[in-house]
Amino acid sequence: MQVATTSGKYSVKHYPDIIQSWKKEGNYFYFYTSTTILELRVISDKIVRFRYAADGQFQRDFSYAVSEKLEESPEFFDIREWADSFEIITTAIRVFVARENLRITITDTDGRIINQDETGFHWQYYLQKGGKIVYCTKLVQEGESFYGLGDKPTELNLRGKRVENYGTDAYGYAKDTDPLYRNIPFYYGLHNGIGYGIFFDNTFRTLFDFGKEREDVTSFWARGGEMNYYFIYGPALLQVAESYARITGTAELPPLWALGYHQCRWSYYPESKVREVAKEFRDRKIPCDALYLDIDYMEGFRCFTWSKESFPDPKALLKDLSAQGFKTVVIIDPGIKVDPDYPIYQEITQKDFACKRADGAYMEGDVWPGKCVFPDFTDPKVREWWSGLFKDLTATGVRGVWNDMNEPAVFELGTFPEDVRHDYDGENVSHRKAHNVYGHLMSKATAAGLKKHLMPQRPFVITRSAYSGTQRWSSVWTGDNIASWEHLWLASVQCQRLAVSGLSFAGSDIGGFIGEPDGELYTRWIQLGTFHPLMRTHSASNETGFNQDPWSFGPEFEAVVKSFIQLRYRLLPYIYTTFWQYAAYGTPMLRPLAFVAQQDENTHDLNHEFMLGDSLLISHVSEAGMTEKSVYLPEGTWYYYFNDQRYTGGQAVTIPTPLAEMPLFVKGGAVVAQYPDMQYVGEFKIMEMIQQVYFAEGTTHSILYEDAGDHYGYKTGQYNLVRFKQSSEPNLFRLKKKFVGKYNADYTHHRIRVHGLPFTPKEYVLDGVTAPLQPEHFVDGVVELNLLRKFEELVIR
Ligand code: MIG
């Protein structure tokens, strides 16, 4: 055993030595050196977990991130002994463990290196705070790019950067501010066409360096806890994303209305103001589903109360809003006001549910209500109690809850001091270990309460802080951004990064939270937000009284903003299908182009383009007065959405960007389902489904998922999965449809619109019955058929 020469806070670095023995227990392998045990667990043919006990003693194997549904399914695995290493083999990868020092090399079955330790696992004693700082260093492979890590406001490819996870209330953050609100210790590597992922499940402050300190080395480390990481092989990056979701869980389907448009402000109050906003939306026929009440709806910022003056009869208000199709979302912060007359404060102190300092005093800190105490959400009893508090709110008519300030944020202090104690599901730890999961567990308790009390309606939760796995119960937004063009770019990269980090259900404060956008910036931001899974305008602007509403910028901008919010509603069946793919398989809803075409190196450093789902490619207009934009199209056929101009991929194309348009392309071969225009989800029974079909040579596939858009019937088969197969021959187009499921949709009309046919057809054949095409079937260069029944096969020739 090496003796540490110590100076100051940390000991020297220690490294594992020679493997002395090993054993196998089921799918677990253990390798013993004189100081260290490596536990290697084969979870599936592509997922292996590495865990190291530096002093021969493992800690409790417990995780707030890992889904209860994670099942082990290694189809086949084996171990071979070599002179210098042990080799663990699965059907997809080979893991070599060096006898000399536990260093890991992982290859595919062809022997190509996927990932390789440099010095690998090592540690330092954290003399000042206790425990160890645990490190893992790996070699950067040639041409390697790195992605992931949650909400980092920087270029998507993290090569050459160092980032850190310790959730922070980053008011008015800028490009490269770090850390921000979320803690997602998960990254992807991509080199030589091979993609893999590493999920470092450690809740202490974690750091990742991607060749910044030393060009050829990537390392990750934590200021405590264990070196415990999952290695995930792709080779496709999207497969890595799906495996990560298998580990940390998938989202549930939200109510369909939550995919509509949300309007928020700090704050709409009193009640007359809320009614006025609601009326404006309906009078102007701008679709909207959700209205938010920020902190001013409460009585002196006391959670679970309503201001008697501003909201004297919340139940009546929410009922009226609901009659107009609005769902109300209210904010709930963690801080509970210290006030002996406030029932929640009485309860939290009586039950002893508030966080305490090391010496037993309450963790007190100022937030909006003044001096507060804070629930210890790491205690299961506290989570249970918190969930129960949503009974009254839901009875009042609340349909969604917004959890803010849960990094946790405290005025002056920033966050809790490190000595604060937490239960951590029975472990009894300091804030150092609990900090990064505080918001994760608050939103978990909130979602559980909302789900229970809203049953059979689906809940909607949005949280500011998060840890890996938060996607199982909540959406997120990117926090307190600024009304600037740079922040529009940040919104785009942050939502893409969140999506590949497991948190697809994300959006930015459209228009910017701080400051006031002009009409042009707001309109361009609405355009981008139309293609973000969560579409919400939010702003502060309390001093000037400026309202960031879709009509705040005059009729010219209002008309364009309205047209994009309408487009959002038309696209709901497509967006819902994309959400279903995410909920079912963990496929990111937003896909950076590197994830769509990883073999094409031109995509690896692209920041400003992404796909929403399988068929839509989006960029955004990124500067004031911009008249054209260059967009890189990956291989395939693409149609510019606004005029059906056809492009061949594998090149950059430049398109004009008048205010009423944006860079939006549809992939050839796609079937994009659309609804007719509506003001809100549930406004009327949908009687017509529109299928926008985009021609491509060869054979292509698309899907449509549909269900009731709320409730849980889909879990017992009340859904439809429609599979479209498009195939073409010279002068012939064929569309086949197959159904699975037993949901009875209302619509009886099917409008099929075929874009981009390269020939002039004369007739169509519907399930074997031929009819001629008439002039009215040719609309704006599109062949349009209005069918009054379902069909299985349509041929146009
Ligand atoms: O200290 O509730 O990010 O969206 O409007 C500010 C007031 C507290 C921060 C949130 C913002 C919200 C605001 N909150």
Automatic annotation (TrEMBL):
Pfam families: DUF5110, Gal_mutarotas_2, Glyco_hydro_31_2nd, Glyco_hydro_31_3rd. Residues 252-577 form the Glycoside hydrolase family 31 TIM barrel domain. SUPFAM superfamilies: (Trans)glycosidases, Galactose mutarotase-like, Glycosyl hydrolase domain. Residues 586-672 form the Glycosyl hydrolase family 31 C-terminal domain. Residues 692-756 form the DUF5110 domain. The keyword Iron does not apply. Keywords: Glycosidase, Hydrolase. Belongs to the glycosyl hydrolase 31 family. This is Alpha-glucosidase. It comes from Chitinophaga cymbidii.
